[in-house]
Fold this protein.
Amino acid sequence: MSGSEEETYSLMFSSLRHPARRKILRMLSEKAMTFSQMLEELAIPSSHLTYHLENLGDLLVKEKDGKYKLSSFGRASVSMMKGAEEVPNIHTKRFSELPLRWKSLYAVFIIGILLLSTFAFVQQTSINQLSSNYDLLKADFDKIQTQNQQLLSWSTSASKAMSIIRDVVQIDVEKYQATLLSNTVEDRADLGGVIEEVIRYSFVNSASRIELTLRFRNNHLSLFQLNQLEGFPNYPPLYTKAQPRDALQAGTELLGRYQSIMGEPYLQEMNQLLTLVNQTTEDQTLGNTRLRMAAFGGNAEIWLFYTENGTDFAAKRVHIVSQNHVITELSDDWNLYKIGTAEVNVSGEQAIQIAKNAARSYSWNSGGVQVSDFEILDSPISAEFYPHTRTSYLTLVPYWYVTLHLDKTYPGGVNVLAVGVWADTGEVANIQALGDQTAP
């Protein structure tokens, strides 16, 4: 671009910056005008008009008749100016200038936005609350699901419990108002994790009130107990069928009904044994079952325990108790226990000597005093054969429980030492310092 053209464009842009000069260019774009005509149209002092005309320079041409008109650059300047002026002029009206109808619509719009915002906030709050509630409900659901699993087990035991009451013991449940007093489940760590369920019922009518307790271990009946709280002995339990007054016969019939429900082979052997014997105080044996019975008046006890190679395992047994010709207890721990060994290599006399030798080096602490100087009496002394568990919670091993009496009472109130001796190996299982003779 030449220097002359740069000056011309510079003049063009500088002219367009002033509103008076833009107006002069617009007027001259419509027609040629004299100085006087422009002065009258613009209503400005003549000196100002002269100043503006001089600044427009090459954008104007003065003809011989004294009129001013646009040069080619002037026409270009007007075209550029019109192009700029034709850009839409966006004018935002103030709210106060709007018609009432638009003001109302605007107000409704604003209210709608506020309502939507409020709704969105409430929704978000609700979602957050629902999320929190969901977590709580899920935790409750998991807890209830766990409880339901227990309840399913309980309902199974409860069904068995009613079957024992109604079909085995033959109590007439229709003649009582039955109430479930409790239904508990416990993990018996002392029995190697056996699940123990205990269900208690109250049976009441106008003449008597009895309480029934049923215990299940690993979903198998372990104990039935009847406790008559009112009406005893004049109002015995009401049965669906008359019960025999003979204890052996009553026990035999009870065990037969129990075997028909449980279907256990060992119960069949026991039932056969009971049907073969008469009322007797002598032990009777059939297969691996030994029968022992004690009776006095209306009271009687029947033991049916496991025996092998002449070794009796009293803990593995079925036990029936009658009081005043009413069966008050049926216990069954036969399935609960296993036999580790039936081998007995140590007699009772040998177990006593082993216990004495072990006790001589025994001592106990009482109030910070170590007691070791004591004397063991030769009489009384006893060795009781009582197989129980050794390394496994529910596996029975032959065992002697030896009771050694001391010559006096020593510190800590000790006058007896109880010594356990394994009957198969002769090893000492334990020694206890006791205040008096205690059953194994």
Confidence is low (pLDDT under 50) at residues 87-92, 147-154. The chain has nine helices and 20 strands. The radius of gyration is 56 Å. The chain has three domains: 3-85, 160-339, 348-434.
